[in-house]
Amino acid sequence: MLGGFGPPGMPQNLTGALLRRGVKDLTVIVNRLDSSWSAADPGKLLERGFVRKVCCAFSASPHPSQVTEFERLHEAGLFEAELIPQGTMVERMRAAAAGIGAFYTPTGVGTEIAEGKEHKVINGRTYILEYPLPADYAFIRATRADTFGNLQYHMTQRNFNPVMAMASKNTFAEIEESIEEPGCLDPDHIHTPGIFIDRIVKIPPPPEGLWTFPSERRDR
Amino acid sequence: MEKQPLDRQTICNRLAMEFENDWVVNLGIGMPTLCANVPFGDRDIILQSENGLVGYGPLAKEGEENKNLVDAGAQYVTTRPGTAIVHHVDSFTIIRGGYVEVTVLGAYEVAENGDFASWKTAGRKGGGIGGAMDLAVGAKRVWITMAHTTRDGKPRLLKRCNLPLTAVGVVSMVATDYGLFEITSGGFVLKEFAPGYTPEEIQEITEATLTISPDLRKFQTRNK
Fold it and tell me: Do the chains contact at B130 and A57, CB–CB below 8 Å?
């Protein structure tokens, strides 16, 4: 699992390490395989041929006029992609995290997403059955940590990261600002408790720590 | 009267006029985000975004961006007094749980039975669902803003959608460059028309049969 929604919360440094190491045949679970923000975006794993399967909410640009490298490689059959509605994706992660065997959701009923899935009418509404989505590893990013692995996120950096941390057997977090001694973070303001975190690493400030997000990327 | 299809901002202004005080509103990426540019006057509109933003402010000014604060379209936005941030599971609890009064989404096709298609175009292997399927079943209202025809002039307000569906029977209002349409059990109702166009001319570029509203009027551009 790779966290982040747009650049905020995206674990570019850990992804960069994975790129350098060159591990093959990965199954990557990510909202969207961006590759245009920096040299260590999750999409680069795909462009380097390290990925066998992708589970994502976007396997093509939402703007049909912009065909991405991801799409070209997907069309060429170089990897398999499972397209999942974003809310179903996070709920499947939550189920994996929370020991839930499966759940019924109304999302996708009557669409291609529902094909081959068990349907059930509950109180007059139709739902489809969805199963947990766990991972062996999650890479995420946060702003502050203590050495227990307790994490604080800044603004929309939070996004998928807390649920990915919980849905994975091993979670590595890259930390933007500081790693403190235990007791330095207010217990009332811990977003992800350290019991879900296995490794933390302080990353350098930009440009070495990447997270560039040029303003010309703005849609309007 | 001179014929004048409506521009994107005018179309979005029209839908934003219908937002009511205290509504939680989710705007899809692309054209719908223009609904946030409208001065809401004394109406307090709570904009919600899939990545966990609840009650965010306008776009950030150049040079004042917070690199960790973006909306669903990855545009830099701002906080305002009352902004809250939650994680993705809670964000989709807001969305699927029925707390969103209206979602304004873009679409490739809308049908007279309220179906719409927005995630996959013909001949493409992949698609972009994002949060649209969850929003479509979870929000109390689904409104669509879109160009009335394809670039080569083919209709997009149809009897039945041709492209893979995003959701079934949920759309209740559509604003295009040619008018404002309600979807009722009887199909599309033309409520308002772009300057200079007759209902017959709008019907010509629409596959579905239009019912003409008894209150038919010119496309409204001023806040009520």
Answer: yes
B170 touches chain A (CB under 8 A): no
User: B47 CB near a chain A CB, below 8 Å?
Assistant: no
Alpha carbon of B75: minimum distance to chain A alpha carbons (Å): 5
* Distance of alpha carbon B77 from alpha carbon B91, whole angstroms: 17
Give the minimum alpha-carbon distance from B204 to chain A in angstroms, rounded to a whole number.
26
- Cβ within 8 Å, pair A75-B125: yes
3-state class (DSSP) for residue A9? coil
CATH of A7-84+136-202, one of 3.40.50.150, 3.40.50.720, 3.40.1080.10, 3.40.50.1100: 3.40.1080.10
| Position B1 in a domain | no
Structural domain of B104: 8-218
Q: Shortest CA distance to A32 belongs to which of B82, B127, B221, B200? A: B127
Contacts of A93 in chain B (CB under 8 A): 89
B223 domain residue, yes or no: no
Domain count, chain B: 1
- List CB contacts (< 8 A) between A220 and chain B: 33-34, 59, 75
Task: Judge contact between B3 and B197, C-beta under 8 A.
Answer: yes
Q: What is the pLDDT along chain B (224 residues), one digit of tens a residue?
A: 789 999 999 999 999 999 999 999 999 988 999 998 888 889 999 999 999 999 999 889 988 889 999 999 888 999 999 999 999 999 999 999 999 999 999 999 999 999 999 999 988 888 899 999 999 999 999 999 999 999 999 999 999 999 999 999 999 999 999 999 999 999 999 999 999 999 999 999 999 999 999 999 999 997 65
B92 CB neighbours in chain A (<8 A) are: 86-87, 90-91
Q: What is the CATH number of the domain that holds B163?
A: 3.40.1080.10
The ipTM estimated for the assembled molecules is 0.95
Cα–Cα distance, B58 to B76 (Å, whole number): 9
Report the DSSP beta bridge partners of residue A132.
Answer: none
